[in-house]
Design a protein that fits this description.
Strand content: 35-45%
Structural class: mainly beta
Distance between the termini: 18 Å
Largest sheet: 8 strands, antiparallel
Shape: globular
Helix content: under 10%
């Protein structure tokens, strides 16, 4: 994870990269957040201002198109560059996310990558008609990069006893997420692997989540 600090050097590093912007929803449920992707096009170093282009979901699958029309959250798949905006609210930017350029100039592809950690919706259904009031998540580690027609392989992660943000692979069998079910992914969670030497009870190979990023 690369936390955003209000410095000229940090702002300059944001240029030409894709960032996750977290917006709190005005709900009674404080944990409810909405994440957006923003591509940083220009950095005004003297004003600590950014010119960004929002990413807009651009699906071609019938189920995903209906999902997007209902304005449900989209975390991965096909996007296009949307409207341009200049903002100073830099602290709401959470972390960078990897992307691939699509076949068109404004096309951007975001897929879970091997070694990344993500939250997925529990009991997800592409036919959801509205955004649930509360979310239940499961956490996974991605075992393979996305392949067209195949999807990605993932394995479940469970919390390590005695730790708040430390997770490790469970004995539960992993599974394949096919391309038609990519909207099951809720959000990317920045994490890093532990060696086991960090402290008592820390398992080797476990994942330490960025705490501000794995809530809903």
């Amino acid at each position: 994870m690369q936390p955003l600090v209000c410095t000229r050097k940090r702002h300059e590093k944001m240029l030409d990269s894709l960032w996750v912007k977290i917006c709190k929803r005005k709900q009674k449920i404080l944990r409810k957040l909405r994440r957006w992707y923003a591509f940083v096009k220009k950095v005004f170093t003297t004003e600590f201002k950014l010119r960004i282009r929002w990413l807009v979901a651009d699906p071609d699958d019938h189920g995903e198109i209906n999902w997007s029309k209902r304005q449900l959250p989209v975390a991965c798949g096909k996007f296009r560059l949307g409207k341009t905006e200049e903002i100073t609210d830099h602290l709401s930017f959470s972390h960078k996310i990897q992307y691939t350029k699509g076949s068109h100039t404004s096309s951007v592809l975001v897929y879970p990558r091997r070694g990344e950690t993500w939250a997925i919706y529990q009991n997800w259904d592409i036919g959801w008609s509205s955004e649930p009031e509360t979310y239940k998540y499961e956490f996974v580690e991605v075992l393979s990069d996305f392949v067209e027609g195949v999807g990605v392989a993932v394995t479940y992660l469970g919390k390590v006893k005695g730790f708040v943000s430390l997770f490790q692979q469970t004995e539960q069998q992993g599974f394949q997420v096919p391309p038609a079910e990519l909207y099951r992914f809720s959000h990317h969670i920045p994490s890093f692997k532990m060696t086991g030497h960090e402290g008592c009870g820390v398992p080797s190979g476990s994942c330490c989540f960025a705490r501000r990023c794995f809530g809903s």
